Amino acid sequence: MVGGIGLMQQHHDELQVIKLNMQYLFLKNFTYIIFDSLSKEAVIVDPAWKIDNIEQTLRSIGAKLTGILGTHTHLDHVHLVKPLEKKYHCPVWLSLKEYESSSFRCRGLQVLEDEQYFFCGSIKVMPLLTPGHTPGSMCYRIGDNLFTGDTLFTEGCGMCTGSMANPHDMFFSLQRLKASIHMDMRIFPGHSFGKIPGKNFAEVLKHNLYLSFEKEENFVAFRMRKGQKNLFHFQWGSD
Fold this sequence. Notes:
The chain is an alpha/beta fold. The protein has a single domain, classed as Metallo-beta-lactamase, Chain A (4-Layer Sandwich), CATH 3.60.15. It has seven helices and 13 strands. It has helices at residues 51-61, 75-78, 81-88, 96-101, 167-180, 201-207, 216-223; strands at residues 7-12, 15-24, 27-36, 41-45, 64-69, 92-95, 109-112, 118-120, 123-129, 138-142, 145-149, 186-189, 199-200. The strands form two sheets. It has a seven-stranded mixed β-sheet with strand order 1-2-3-4-5-6-7. Helix 4 links the parallel strand 6 and strand 7 (109-112). Helix 5 packs across helix 7.
């Protein structure tokens, strides 16, 4: 445990994925730190709510923060972006479409096109544009790890309500992920409804109903069905 926040490490060669459990009121979401143990550099995905826990983790592993990755601009995913960018003077990465469709701005903001790979220090990042939850939602592949924000959960997918969301886009984004990522890829979503993040895609594909649809109209009808409950009943996850 780090400062009362759950911590998990997933090793891939020299990379470690550290999961921080972040909470504000009823919202529970994950912030991820990806640490290169060789260069001692780290990037952070979707920082929110508990800056002390982030900084304590960085100190405990001796990491230099070299970049911030935003999957999308909802508050529970960007709450700490500006304070961290200001203190650590590191770039903030966001999709161009998310930049164009949102009001989020900060000094170190860098915009990305789909599959425009780049380096945060020594860490190679491949962005994949996956609209649906928002117009510019983006997943990030780092090594054999995929950080999916509110696009893909272990147990489902992101909500597609509101003027900026689109269930048709979500269908094609999930189809793209199904076609492009390998079965051993570890999936790290922004929230959990019961499962611990870091499951391989083969397991997610086997149990996630939203990935089973082959026809757009069937997916949209199911995603937008009435009477859905516990849409924000997020959990830390267990096996």
